[in-house]
Every structure is written in C-alpha cells, then in structure tokens.
Amino acid sequence: MSENTASAPAAIIIEGARKDYGAQAGGRREAVADVSLSVSQGAIHGLLGPNGAGKTTTLKMLLGLVRPSGGTFQVLGVDAHKPGARAQLGFLPEQPYFPIQLTVIEALTLYGRLAGLTKAQVVAEAPALLERVGLGGQGGTRLSRFSRGMLQRLGLAQAMLGSPKVVVLDEPASALDVSHQLRLFDLLKELNADGLTVLVDCGRGVLMRLVAAGVVPPMLDALLITHLHSDHITDLGDVITTRWVMSPGPRPLRGSILIGHTHWDHIQGLPFFAPLFVRGNEWDIYAPRGFEQSLHETLAGQMQYTYFPITLEQLSASIRYHEIVEGVFAIGDLRVTAQYLNHPALTLGYRLEADGVADYTI
To answer: Is 213 in contact with 200 (CB distance < 8 Å)?
Structure first.
C-alpha cells in the first residue's frame, strides 16, 4: 500500500450500525447490534461470521438497500446514502437476478445506464470485463441459457462497470465451481493491484480460500477452526470484522487446526490450505483419536484418494499431530473443550473460550 493511500480518508466507515426488526409477538428482534469498521483505500477487507450473523444486512445498510435503525455510513468521506457516494460503488449481491430474456450485453447496458453510463461506454467496457470474469465472447448470449454460476460471474462484471473506486461483494464465490473460485481470487488480486477497495462478505469459508489463493496474506498467528470440508469451512466468530493489509514478502505462520472427524469427505477442503503449509510454517493438527491408525496415518491414507490433488507428504511445513479424546486442553490462551457428538463416525465437537471473546462452539 502506498504512503499516499495510507494517508487518504478511509474508503468505508461504518459506526454503530444497528438494525432492529419488529416482531409480530414478543417485541423487537435485533439483527445487527453496534457494528463499526473502517476500511482503508486500496485494502481488501473481509466481513466474517456464520449465517444469520448480520453480514448481509450490514452491507445492505451501507448500500442504502436496508434502512438502518441506527449508525452512520460513509464512502470516501461522503454520506453513503447520498448519490455522490453511491456513484463510487460497485455491488454484487449474493444471488444476482437478471431479466433472462435479455442478452449479456443488453443486461450490462441496462445496469450501466442505471449507473449513469452511456450505451457507448458500456459497449466499450463490456468485452474486457466479460473476458476478466470468464465470459469472453458471450455478449450476444441470452441469459436464459446461463447457469447460476455464469450469472454470478455476470454479476461480477456489472459490479465493475464504470470503474468504481469501491466494490462490495456479498458471498462472491456462491454458485462458482472450484476453478472459477480460483479465477475469482485472481480477479480480486487484480482489482486490488488496480487500487480498488474491496469489502467482501466471507461466509462459507471464503476467508480461508482467499488466504490459500494468496489474495490475503495472514497477518497474525492463525487459529483455523474447521471441519475442512470444501463446502463447510466454519469461521471463528459471531460477527467478526477483520482487516487485511496487503504487505510484501512471506512471513512464517504458526497455527492450529481442529478437525471434527477424519473421513475423506470432511477433510476435502484441505487442498485449499496447501499454500499455508510451506516450509518454515508450523501447524498443530488436532483430531479424534482413532482405534487402530495414528492421526498421521489416517490423514495420509484418506488423502491417497484421487479426489485430492495433493498428498499429505507434499505439505512441507512442520506439522505436529495431536490425537484427542473428550476433555479440556489449551491452545495458547484459548480453552478448548472437546466432546463426542452423536454421529455415525467418530466425531468431536469443540467449544472455545477466551477472556473478552464470546464463546464459540463447532
């Protein structure tokens, strides 16, 4: 990040965001409670938390799509709900919808005109945008022929129309297969290199995939709490906002991974973590104690399946294996309680506790 960028006003400021919904019986329901964050210009910033934590509601309050119950919202120093601020924003909703009778170029023209662009501007920008999202040559295709994943990529293209300075992405990897998720992460790196600010809802494990793809260099020692399932990677936190600063050069990592159980379908997300297992990094892996094989033997055996693009032996980091049973142990200043779950396979659930941090159970 350049010195000029670092001293510039924040790209996004949210202070005390709150959203209450009226309940038919029993008072009001609090969907978002006192969320504040600041995103520097040129940064990639992730909004983390489980489903229902209020991530999408927070983004929609910023964008003016949901009326907040309280709080202030700014984009590039301007009230986010004023047209001047919105003109600087691009937005991809979690499930973008387009009139399916339109062609790709007609849809981009429609949304470009709504954003204040001329038809000529949209036609000039469209080919390069479509190429970037993997839809090159599809300008004349009707959207009725598109899969959900293709519509998601079209949504990315429309979010970048008009060269906005800030892009907000809500679950951008939703409906994308693995190859296009990796392309998405490359695109985020390109956008960041172009100086764009990106605010992304990182539910469903996008955080770990961003890190693994090299989009977001981890800044601190990591604790990865996960089933390591490619479609079920659990983020630590209730509503957590975390900021990543793009910084040059690798740095050694020390981290811990808790595995609920070790069958192949629950560790198939491990390849996404492979770039974190480079030489010099240190990892502690915790998993249920098996009946015959060691944890190392169990993981190595499961990763021999052809589904896995890597084997355990290809991970060059220093790895320590911990076979655990029910009980309490510590990871740094975290207290971890392990308990067997009612599951056909040998499975542990984990409860985490730390001073000043809400309990979290997986």
So the answer is: no
Give the H/E segment covering residue 297: helix 295-302
Note the pLDDT of residue 166.
92
The CATH number of residue 327's host domain is: 3.60.15.10
- Choose among 212, 193, 271: nearest CA to 5: 193
In a domain, 213, yes or no: no
CA distances from 101 to 108, 137, 145, 149, 349 (A): 13, 18, 10, 17, 48
Q: Which residue has the higher pLDDT, 236 or 297?
A: 297
Parent domain of 325? 254-361
Burial class (CB in 10 A: 0-12, 13-18, 19+), 246: middle
Beta-carbon contacts of 52 under 8 Å, excluding residues fewer than 6 positions away, are none
Give residue-wise pLDDT tens across range 68-114.
999 999 999 999 988 888 888 999 888 888 898 999 999 999 999 98
Asked, for residue 330, whether it belongs to a domain, the answer is yes
The number of domains in the chain is 1
Q: Is residue 62 part of a domain?
A: no
Cα–Cα distances in Å, from 276 out to 126, 179, 243?
36, 19, 19
pTM for the complete prediction? 0.59
What does the pLDDT look like over 208-220, one tens digit per residue?
455 544 444 433 2
